[in-house]
Design the sequence.
């Protein structure tokens, strides 16, 4: 696979010694603290590179779909608990749906959740999977990635811990990417954001880390693009 950072024949690696062990707050977590961000009922989005006519749909729930305007914009009504019930898992295991590995600690052990991180798109250009993610280049050798996701929780809970989210960037040379989770979920659809920072040095080594927390974006429009489009944004 092509090295998207554009540094050929180089040895890549993350800073060593990163522990992916479960992070526990001293003395156990307290009663769940409510997020100060309200829940949402819709996704306002715009598909990058939209062509012609078509629809967007929730992956695995084709009944939850929306038509798309000619400029690629859409408003998708999020499915209710009855529609996602069969797909929900223990809130502590949400890493699986975020394309991450590991688990986090849930202050409400019986809390269950469903994570929506991608939408299926079908238009004149064909079918593809997209996510609300964007990349930027704050410096010559530094990159940032922002990913927005929607978390449905059946009860209030605090999620704390560290996940390995290297797969989100799809860079084979990066085998480990620790992401710290600090999310206070309300019952219903919560908007969360995953922010990743990565940087390379003159020896062509790259280090990275990230955090996931409640988003202040609410119903603000998000741009949905493919992983390939993200890689083009962060290429060196």
Sequence:
């Amino acid at each position: 696979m092509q090295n998207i950072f554009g540094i050929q024949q180089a040895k890549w690696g993350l800073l060593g010694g990163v522990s992916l062990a479960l992070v526990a707050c001293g003395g156990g977590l307290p009663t769940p603290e409510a997020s100060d961000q309200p829940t949402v009922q819709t996704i306002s989005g715009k598909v990058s590179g939209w062509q012609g006519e078509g629809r967007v749909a929730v992956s695995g729930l084709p009944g939850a779909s929306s038509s798309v305007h000619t400029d690629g914009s859409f408003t998708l009504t999020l499915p209710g608990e009855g529609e996602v019930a069969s797909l929900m898992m223990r809130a502590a295991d949400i890493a699986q749906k975020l394309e991450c590995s590991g688990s986090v600690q849930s202050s409400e052990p019986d809390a269950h959740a469903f994570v929506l991180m991608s939408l299926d798109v079908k238009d004149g250009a064909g079918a593809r999977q997209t996510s609300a993610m964007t990349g930027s280049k704050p410096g010559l050798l530094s990159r940032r990635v922002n990913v927005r996701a929607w978390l449905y929780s059946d009860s209030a809970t605090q999620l704390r811990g560290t996940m390995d989210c290297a797969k989100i960037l799809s860079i084979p040379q990066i085998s480990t990417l620790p992401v710290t989770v600090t999310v206070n979920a309300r019952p219903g659809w919560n908007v969360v954001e995953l922010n990743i920072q990565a940087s390379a040095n003159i020896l062509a080594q790259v280090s990275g880390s990230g955090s996931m927390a409640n988003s202040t974006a609410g119903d603000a429009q998000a741009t949905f693009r493919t992983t390939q489009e993200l890689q083009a944004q962060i290429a060196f």
